[in-house]
Amino acid sequence: MKNFSFYKGWMLFCYTLILTIYLFNNTLRANPNLLKLPNQQKQITGIITNGTIPLTGVTVKVKGNTKGTVSDYDGKYSITANTTDVLIFSYLGYKTLEITVGNRKIIDVKMLDNTTSLQEVTVNAGYYSVKNSERTGSIAKITSKDIEKQPVTNVLATMQGRMAGVEIIQDGGTAGGAFQIKIRGQNSLRTDGNSPLYIIDGVPYSSETIGSTETSTTTASQTSPLNSINPADIESIEVLKDADATAIYGSRGANGVVLISTKKGKAGKTTVTITASSGIGKVTKMLDLMNTAQYLEMRRQAFVNDGITVYPNSAYDINGTWDQNRYTDWQKELIGGTAQVNNTQLAIAGGSNSTQYLLSGNYRTETTVFPGNFGYNKGAVHFSMNHVSDDKKFKLTISGGYTSQKNNQPSTDLTGISRTLVPNAPALYDIDGNLNWENNTFENPLASLQSKGVIKINDLLANAVLSYEIIPGFEFKTNLGFTDLKNNEVRVMPSTMYNPAYGIGSSESILLTNTTLRQSWIIEPQLHWSRTFTNGKIDILLGATAQQQKSNRLYQMGYGFASNSLINDLSSANSVFTFTSDETVYKYQAFFGRINYNWQKRFIVNLTGRRDGSSRFGPGKQFAVFGAVGAAWLFSNEKFLKENTSILSFGKLRASYGTTGNDQIGDYQFLNTYTSAGTPYQGTIGLNPVRLFNPDFGWEINKKFEAALETGFFQDRIFLTTAWYLNRSSNQLVGIPLPGTTGFSSVNANLDATVENTGIELTLRTLNIDRKNFNWTTNFNISASKNKLISFPGLETSTYANNYVIGSSLNITKVFHYTGLNTQTGIYEFEDVNGDGLITADKDRKTVADLTPKYFGGIQNQFQFKNLQLDFLFQFVKQKNYDYIANVPAGSFYNQMAAMTNSWQQSGDNTPYQQNTIGTNGEAVTAFYNYRSSDAVIVDGSYIRLKNISLSYDLPLMMDKSLKCKLFFQGQNLMTFTPYKGGDPEFKYAGYLPPLKMYTVGVQLTF
């Protein structure tokens, strides 16, 4: 049998294919209509979604005629079309799609976000909403799409690195910790007078701390109420920055306004979304400390330098009492644990075109990196309902949220001791598993964990908005809000936290309690009228505000208990002391208005004003008027540009000027007030005067100016915003020093000091690639700001002389100028400014170190390839920071940085660190503490950090198209690039746990 050649067979196939194509081509030339589809009318149906939920109200039209329909609340549509027709699907915020009908009768559509339609994005400006293209003020915005990609619990954490001009710093890595925020710099001399105003669904939310420094000791700052806001419930966050945007909030807008809008239900079939995730957290960066060999060599050298040849009995580390071959990495042992994080979210949403609803619940648990059974639990419930009457005149929105938190943490942060405990210290437990005291030579750090702090917070926020359109264009609206916060903090200090050898019993155990209750309500009736003319449109808003906030505080201590089992019962204490028991009431009323005129979508003028009344000021000073004017020119709408360029798609020049105020001074500060003495005298508890009366106590005033240019190129694929601002805050509310003979250290008054903040902000957004299956978007922002004290009469003779310098930033520190090491004596040396031969703080600490960041920002990249999405954000900061240095000189009974092994030992040594001492060399000890207060420890603290990364995959489920499944990975604080050696460069508090890096995986089901 003959074998068939593969080559001959392949050639035969090719010849046959070529002949077929040739014959088919000639046939088509003779009759070209063969390829045309029959042009028949038919009914086309389908479902329109965004990939997760059905979309209601999508416009569906046949291209070239007026035939059209809209999708219903299930996302379904039906339209008659021909085979050759093209259907156009359009919906605000999504890309317009064009699909040829062809032979299909069912066309399901997935709408894609229109990432380039920045001009059409609606921005919440508080009392009104405005298109991004038509706003005259400076407003930064992030949405739930950015928020839900971050495994965080505090709303401020979601904003880091994403908004120009908004500086946010995390106070620590302990669960439930707080954040600092500054919007365009520091305006007030008072550190507690720079917080922005928070508005949640139209309801002011107080950010004043609710904790006590004695009961919330684990964290670097007191308990923040902002932890009550569940990030998963947030739809968007807008930050108002300039006068045009903030003046309508009057006295409360000097430091900016943070508007938080929670999620609302959407019309469509009921959808259930379940999100579950689990993750771990670790400390971002450990210090490079000495090991046992390095540490003991340092100690031996210190004794040699001090001329001591016999080690004292208390030098357990070096005299042979402790094992000199033992090594323990105490950072790994005490703060190197792994925090476990679990989060579950359930949301049910849906409704008709007239009524929509949303109900969601969230529960989160988070353990700590410390040894022991500690943790943070947080549960939240959120509800929202929207209703509109059939005639579209009456509208009702109701929303509410309730959050419950329980934070069980050790009273002592072990970070500090983990950095100073010597590496050859004994084991933590003895052979029986009990705490090891090593024959009373060792203070076991785990003993401090017997002292615990428990914080319980319950927070309710409710809001209702009712509106009625009286006649077309004329609407009456009322905003109603209520908040109720209850904070209960308990710190126990049982006798078991001490070495049993001390003989301390429960009669010396201590219980500290702090209870804070805060309630507020607000009523805001408003009238809104708008009308469109041939060449323009006018909007007028008039409103009034009535608000009240009542706060109660009770801080007590119980001392001595019959048994430690009764330590949580204050009534069981042998002695009870009341340190604080007060009630404060804050009342506020205002009238506000806005007039906006838009002429031909080219020129826009916006006028806002507010007359405020506050109970925090004395007679004749309670009322003040604030206002602003903003203007914009949309030059891209000019004919000469529209007709002559295709590159520029959008161009706007805007500017604003106005005044805002600040009343963040606490209540009753203008009054002469008294507090209870707390202890009886001859059977009677007396009163102590704490404040002097000042009837001239008035408002701080902040004058703001901004100019900005917004440009879009190539259909907004490149969108650039550049803004320059100048803010001046005057009439500063501070304590004016008084002579001691008055019995008071100061009196609250207005100081004729002026603080200036100037800066430039740049925001760039680029759509790099936009294809059907792949797109890539980049968002970049950078802010460079400068803070300066312009004037301060009598500064040199005031108590603020060591804190501030005219012409310098408020965020400065005065330090000695380090001139180097004396190679002969091995002692640090400093500049003798006044030449008196002595180094003293008041005469020689004159060098000014500015700790204000020179610039900061972030760059975010978003990639989408089919069902795979990758999003990551790099945050960067250019700044100075304090280097880590131990509290005692090298050579003492404390561990030190490994770099300090390079210390001076003999005459002629040129080393970075002075000679070691156990503390008996007075000259070396003094030089060390001067060194800690010199510019030698002010180092480059700049960093670039992979702040957030999110990788998700929409799993295709062919068996059920109504079920959506998303798998995701999220990370926070994953990598940091920095020259800083003192730990985490973002962190500002030595001795407290730095921020954690988080790794989270999860799944989201929608059906």
TrEMBL record:
Write down the superkingdom of origin. Bacteria
What keywords appear on the UniProt entry?
Answer: Cell outer membrane, Membrane, Transmembrane, Transmembrane beta strand, Transport
Q: Does the keyword Membrane apply?
A: yes
Specify the protein's topology with respect to the membrane.
Multi-pass membrane protein
Its GO CC terms?
A: cell outer membrane
Where does it live in the cell?
Cell outer membrane
The protein's name: TonB-linked outer membrane protein, SusC/RagA family
From which source organism is this entry? Answer: Flavobacterium johnsoniae
